[in-house]
Amino acid sequence: AGNSYLDKVGLVLRVLRALRILYVMRLARHSLGLQTLGLTARRCTREFGLLLLFLCVAIALFAPLLYVIENEMADSPEFTSIPACYWWAVITMTTVGYGDMVPRSTPGQVVALSSILSGILLMAFPVTSIFHTFSRSYLELKQEQERVMFQRAQFLIKTKSQLSTMSHDSDILFGSASSDTRDNN
């Protein structure tokens, strides 16, 4: 019983240690690139949603198709279940594939080729829109940052001139009073 308690405490500590990565998000206030990335992600939720929808539809088409073809035509089918085929389709369409499961039959390889090509095309469609949004967001944030810096510089110049005017006025006031006391001595 005591050992399971220590295991739970150790797990909690590991989770808390892993959450330290969230401190990086506080740096986003100071990084124009991270701010731009966050703004782009917020502005492109529709594009990301459409990408996810299209990928899900394509995966839902290719996975069962490959399962049926490979179980009917392959000598030793690697694809033992439809969820395994879904795993294969996700990895194949979103990356270059792990190679842990490969279609052996010629029709299965044709399905795999069409799955790879459709994955590349589906990933490429929203990229131009997302890039355009990213560049527009970057320019907006850069202009905002320059405007804030200009306003700060103007404020500092104004404050400095006011301080020098006040200093000059105080020199006149206190300078004349100190010269009067020197003349009386």
Describe it.
With 185 residues, this protein is mainly alpha-helical. The protein has helices at residues 2-18, 32-43, 45-73, 82-94, 106-124, 127-184. The mean pLDDT is 84.
| CA(first)-CA(last) distance | 91 Å
Strand-pairing-aware structural class: mainly alpha
Fraction of helical residues: over 70%
Topology, number of strands: 0
Number of helices: 6
Which ranges are low-confidence, i.e. pLDDT below 50, for 5 or more consecutive residues?
none
**In CATH, what is the class of one domain?**
Mainly Alpha
Q: What's the SSE pattern?
A: HHHHHH
Radius of gyration: 33 Å
Going by CATH, the architecture of one domain would be Orthogonal Bundle
Q: Remind me, CATH topology of one domain?
A: Helix Hairpins
Average pLDDT, rounded to a whole number, is 84
Shape: elongated
Our estimate of the beta-strand percent is under 5%
Report the sheet with the most strands, covering strand number, pairing sense and barrel closure.
none
In short:
The protein is mostly helical.
Give the helices and strands, then pairings:
Blueprint: H1 2-18, H2 32-43, H3 45-73, H4 82-94, H5 106-124, H6 127-184
Helix pairs in contact: 2-6, 3-4, 3-5, 4-5
Membrane topology: Multi-pass membrane protein
GO biological process, one term: action potential
InterPro entries: Ion_trans_dom, K_chnl_volt-dep_Kv, VG_K_chnl
